[in-house]
């Protein structure tokens, strides 16, 4: 499995925008989870992390997205961060024996900047796929 990014979709409800992606990742869920739920993993493909308490209600500080808290946490499956820049949710599902499907949602307010755009997230997911294709985070040390 090589990984792919299916077309993102966007909805608007007043000033609130919701961006969805379905991303097929070339690694099993337990290899993908650290990329979405650890400071080192998030920092490798998305943004720097100043603080991440890995539990429901934990504090989070993401560079470029702001401070907030962990609003959903199901180890190895769901990580959701509600920050000043909106709500960012990663939901993992098994895709055969060796792959993972990432269902991604970013809810944000109008004027959130390029980081909230479909092209911005597509670029990030391409970087994530490359990292995972190379063996994952453990090989980046």
SSE map:
Layout: E1 4-5, E2 9-13, E3 16-25, H1 29-37, H2 39-45, E4 49-52, E5 59-62, E6 66-74, E7 78-83, E8 86-95, E9 99-109, H3 118-133
Antiparallel strand pairs: 1-3, 2-3, 3-9, 4-5, 5-6, 6-7, 7-8, 8-9
Pick out its properties.
141 residues, alpha+beta, Alpha-D-Glucose-1,6-Bisphosphate, Chain A, domain 4, nine-stranded antiparallel β-sheet, 3 helices, 23% helix, 43% strand
Could you write a compact summary of the structure shown?
With 141 residues, this protein is an alpha+beta fold.
Task: Describe the protein.
The protein has 3 helices and 9 strands; from the N terminus they run βββααββββββα. By secondary structure, it is an alpha+beta fold. It has a single domain (4-136), classed as START domain (Alpha-D-Glucose-1,6-Bisphosphate, Chain A, domain 4, 2-Layer Sandwich), CATH 3.30.530. Strands 1, 2, 3, 4, 5, 6, 7, 8 and 9 form a 9-stranded antiparallel beta sheet that branches. Helix 1 (29-37) crosses helix 2 (39-45). The longest helix is centred in the last third of the chain and has 16 residues, at 118-133. The two termini are 24 Å apart.
What is the correct CATH architecture?
2-Layer Sandwich
Helix % is 10-25%
Number of strands: 9
CATH superfamily: START domain
What does the radius of gyration come to?
Answer: 14 Å
Class per helix and strand makeup: alpha+beta
Mean pLDDT: 90
- Beta-strand share of residues: 35-45%
Order of helices and strands: EEEHHEEEEEEH
**Sheet with most strands:** 9 strands, antiparallel
Overall morphology: globular
Kindly identify the CATH topology.
Alpha-D-Glucose-1,6-Bisphosphate, Chain A, domain 4
CATH secondary-structure class: Alpha Beta
Count of helical regions:
3
- Poorly predicted runs are none
Distance between the termini: 24 Å
């Amino acid at each position: 499995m090589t990984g792919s990014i299916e077309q993102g979709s966007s909805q608007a409800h007043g000033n609130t925008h919701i961006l969805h992606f379905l991303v097929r990742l070339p690694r099993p869920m337990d290899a993908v989870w650290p990329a979405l739920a650890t400071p080192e993993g998030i920092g490798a493909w998305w943004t720097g992390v100043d603080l991440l308490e890995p539990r429901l209600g934990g504090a989070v500080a993401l560079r470029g997205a702001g401070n907030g808290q962990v609003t959903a946490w199901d180890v190895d499956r769901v990580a959701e961060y509600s920050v000043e820049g909106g709500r960012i949710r990663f939901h993992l599902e098994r895709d055969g024996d060796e792959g993972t499907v990432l269902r991604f949602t970013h809810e944000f307010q109008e004027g959130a900047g390029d980081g909230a755009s479909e092209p911005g997230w597509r670029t990030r997911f391409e970087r994530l796929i490359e990292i995972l294709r190379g063996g994952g985070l453990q090989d980046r040390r």
